[in-house]
Amino acid sequence: MFEDKYSFSQDQNRRFAKMNLTRLVFTNSKFVGVNTTLPQTQTIIDGVNDY
Fold first, then answer.
1. In sequence order, which residues have a C-beta less than 8 Å from that of residue 41 and are 6 or more positions away?
2. pTM exceeding 0.85
3. What distance in Å separates the CA atoms of residue 45 and residue 26, rounded to the nearest whole number?
């Protein structure tokens, strides 16, 4: 079989998700037809995270 060369620890996985949250949301939103730009998505994410 193939060697798993992308094996992250749980901490590394969390860090990766936090660093790439906006890009992940932006990319997934394109699949459902949401027409926003990456900066607009960043603004939305920033607004959601301000409590």
1. 22, 25, 26, 29
2. no
3. 10
